[in-house]
Amino acid sequence: MPTTPTGSPAGPGQQGTHLTHGAHPHVVPRHPRLDPLADRYAARTHGMKTSEIRALFSVVSRPEVVSLAGGMPAVTALPLDAVGSMIGDLVSGMGAQTLQYGSGQGDPRLRERICDVMALEGIRDASASEVVVTVGSQQALDLVTRVFVDPGDVILAEAPSYVGALGVFQSAQARVRHIAMDDDGLIPEALEQALVECRANGDRVKFLYTVPNFHNPAGVTLTETRREAVMAIAERHDLLIIEDNPYGLLGFDHEPMRALRARDSQRVIYLGSFSKTFSPGLRVGWVLAPLAVREKLVLATEAQVLCPPSLTQYAVARYLDTQPWREQIKLFSELYRERRDACLESLDAMMPAGTTWTRPDGGFYVWLKLPHGLDAKRMQPRAVNALVAYVPGIGFYADGSGREYMRLSYCYPEPDQIREGVRRLARVVEAELDLHSTFDAVDTGTFRAVGRRASGHDAETIVGPANSNAYEDGRA
Ligand SMILES: Cc1ncc(COP(=O)(O)O)c(C=O)c1O
């Protein structure tokens, strides 16, 4: 079983560190001649960087490129005419109210309906007064981080983690400590070990950030046994949990799992979103939090945006009131299942030995590990040349590890495009392997055998930085 790395925290950019420091002691002027304001930026601004996903935008929008990169929901599967006339009716029927400022906490009717949605994942005790509507769950992440995190605080997060959360944590100048995962999700023993070590180091751990269902980017789901174990650890160590759950209703094989929040209403703050089950363009998400926290979140919202947009909140509430949204979620799940199958079948058929990947049973993503010694970031220009795009794994780690991984999204392209994309990718990996063995032969005078794919193509354990370092050592 992989373990989280041990050892004391290291400074920013140091290889092998598992605690990344967002706080910069000095503001260092950058490119003062290119940007005359460069020496005026806040320390946190210097830590901001383009995400691996946004960096790919110009490439993936070319029609000849098969993009397995972006996590865009298949909104064309929505009944667009019905949604269009529903929004039209909304403005003509409700009039000025839809175009006016609203409350900082969000529309009460929508908050009621959000409680119905959460009940599908076992959260039956939530009241609308504990819900804060946000501009997508991305704003929810930002609000929660603002409310809890000071520069230098530690946030525990899975290895790998959602890139948008890492961006928020970085701008709050938090230090992220990654916790190893495997096919069953976050490893409870690794979580406990991290907590013990953080306590010994005197670190202020503010919360665990976790995506228990159909993880972005790992594609895995926290098992029932592990959910219990994680909650028991949280209880023992008085740990706050941020449960980020945009994909939980998009399972392929079983009923939605019981949320962590359903097990503890005080220790878990729950983030939800309509981006994957309805529309990401409406930008409607929410936080469910104990009343005292909710107060702070509303204050933080008011300072940030005054209130969430009225029109899109009414649109979501009306959609939930008048449209068959549960059936629509089933339809989405069927569509994503078909795309997942196309992706896994072509990976099984075409990927060279030594490549492994996860087998998601819901959501949007497959997490792929390249054969030993290959680097997804360095391989990326070749892949783009071959007209296929993916997201290199390093974007999903706060400490620069994960070079041997990539995220493949099957949510957006049609099944045939997915098959073609995987075919192109397999060729790129093969060419890279050839190149690699040639250089190995030059370096060492021998050809090194490339590892075989595990029987059944089960995913290899997803590892945190400790094993990534082993990989770095192996290349030396
Ligand atoms: C795990 C996770 N959290 C949060 C978000 C943000 O979603 P939104 O702001 O659209 O609700 C995403 C989007 O991909 C995600 O994958």
UniProtKB/TrEMBL annotation:
Name of this chain's protein: DNA-binding transcriptional regulator, MocR family, contains an aminotransferase domain
Pfam families reported in the protein's UniProt record: Aminotran_1_2 (PF00155)
Region of interest called Disordered, as start-end residue ranges on this chain: 1-33
UniProt lineage: Bacteria, Bacillati, Actinomycetota, Actinomycetes, Geodermatophilales
Cofactor: pyridoxal 5'-phosphate
Biological process per Gene Ontology, one example term: alpha-amino acid metabolic process
Sequence ranges of Low complexity compositional bias: 1-17
Keywords annotated in UniProt: Aminotransferase, DNA-binding, Pyridoxal phosphate, Transferase
Key word Transferase present: yes
Family, as annotated: Belongs to the class-I pyridoxal-phosphate-dependent aminotransferase family.
Annotated GO MF terms: DNA binding; pyridoxal phosphate binding; transaminase activity
Gene3D superfamilies documented for this protein: Aspartate Aminotransferase, domain 1, Type I PLP-dependent aspartate aminotransferase-like (Major domain)
Bilayer-spanning residue ranges: none
Compositionally biased region (Basic residues): 21-31
Residue ranges constituting the Aminotransferase class I/classII large domain according to the UniProt record: 93-425
Cross-referenced PANTHER family: AMINOTRANSFERASE, KYNURENINE_ALPHA-AMINOADIPATE AMINOTRANSFERASE, MITOCHONDRIAL
Record text on subunit structure and interactions: Homodimer.
UniProt keyword annotation of Nucleus present: no
UniProt-listed SUPFAM superfamilies: PLP-dependent transferases
InterPro entries to which the protein is assigned, alphabetical: Aminotransferase_I/II_large (IPR004839), Class-I_PLP-dep_aminotransf (IPR050859), PyrdxlP-dep_Trfase (IPR015424), PyrdxlP-dep_Trfase_major (IPR015421), PyrdxlP-dep_Trfase_small (IPR015422)
